[in-house]
Amino acid sequence: VSQNTESDFSFNTPACEDTPQTYQMSNMAGINNSPFNDCSPKVKWIITNTDTQAIEYQSASFINLTSPTAAGGTLTYTYPNPGHYEVCLVNEVTCEIGYNQDTICHDVCIEQNFTAVPTWPTTTLFCSGTTPINPTLNIGTPICTNPTVTWALTYQNGTAVPSTYYTLNVANPLSPVLS
Fold this sequence. Notes:
The structure is a single chain. About 0% of the residues lie in helices and about 40% in strands. It is an all-beta fold. It contains no helices and 13 strands. Strands 2, 4, 5, 6, 8 and 9 form a six-stranded mixed beta sheet that branches. A three-stranded antiparallel beta sheet has the order 1-3-7, with no helix packed on it. Strands 10-11 form a two-stranded antiparallel sheet.
């Protein structure tokens, strides 16, 4: 009879606040492989905000588990706030020969939601060949990674402006130089 409780789960990072995240147990190596089926595998999920050390979520109790995809092997959780979190899956196996508990944890970063609205430094029309302008994009302070920003110019009717009509220096993607 094996009491090996090594398991793991799938996760995504970074992810966004207010967006459901699903954690799926992906391995039950050694759990309940007794020829007499005398082991009782159980799991429990714990999510801790590592910025505040507060437990954000915890299963009410251990859940009996028959397979990684059974109820209890999957957790869907929506983070109400951005930050750094530790997601842990605790396994407990009780067999006639003893008891074993194992915990596997992964760090997950949850990014804030934002609406990207550029600010233009002028209210007048821009004409090619005039003084360069610097639009800015205020997205707050990224928590997990620097964002990838792509700028595109369109006419008021939505048609793309040919790139031969302008130059765009995006050395600082949050405040490019348009000329």
